[in-house]
Amino acid sequence: MxxxxxxxxxxxxxxxxxxLIDYDGLKKVLDYTAKGVDYYVVLGTTGxxxxxxxxxxxxxxSFVKANNSHGLPIVYGIGGNNTAAVVEEINNTDFSGVxxxxxxxxxxxxxxxxxxxAHFKMxxxxxxxxxxLYNVPGRTMSNMLAETTLELxxxxxxxxxxxxxxxxxxxKTIADQxxxxxxxLSGDDLITTEIIEMGGKGVISVLANGFPEEFxxxxxxxxxxxxxxxxxxxxxxxxxxxxxxAESNPVGIKEVLRQKGICGNQVRLPLVSATxxxxxxxxxxx
Length: 286
Description:
Elements: E1 6-10, H1 23-33, E2 39-42, H2 54-66, E3 74-77, H3 83-91, E4 100-104, H4 113-126, E5 131-135, H5 137-140, H6 146-152, E6 158-163, H7 168-177, E7 183-186, H8 192-197, E8 202-205, H9 212-223, H10 227-235, H11 251-259, H12 276-285
Parallel strand pairs: 1-2, 1-8, 2-3, 3-4, 4-5, 5-6, 6-7, 7-8
Helix pairs in contact: 3-4, 4-6, 6-7, 9-10, 11-12
């Protein structure tokens, strides 16, 4: 799945002041990020999928397909902690024009590793497009061990993992032992170079919403083996990256987009828009 090498942007979902989907803003985000990124990731964590209705999800996906002027590959997010409900949503989704599914490891229930394996096998069996696993223990409170990922990598419809554990030792184990063609993708923007250096194929990025050309250049340099130059680009994001998470993602990156004049910074409760302190810190760095 070489079309998903490089930089995927974990698209924000812009909202109006009334809390509705801002399709004009979304169109601007699509056009702005297309200048640099290699593919779109629709309705992941950064897209506030947790507060989107079923109808909104379908509408957002349809809108991205219809406004994909650069013809970029599309990865679509469906995940959850109710396996049967995830499978039902997959069965009721139009996957035409979608290249892969991104599915987060089940949260809240705190399943065993055997439960995580069974969950993803059922999803992979049901899904008409290839599946990318998503390990993000900071949100799910449940880490997918390297052994779990490697077991799931044997499934013919599971093609990769977005690793956001921040555990480079765990990522190295996956990189060293994964089957041919299985993609290790960074879920942590600032360790993308390290992930690629150990054998990863790219990143699904938050920062790429606001800095699509610069961030994508970093991933390209790393994939070309120019790790020193890639690290210089990565280092340039060291100050602003923590601000993306200071008040929870996507509050920070939406404020970046507001200050760049691309879309508003509205988020849905229980998240709230950036405080004046955060706005000021982002402004000084921009």
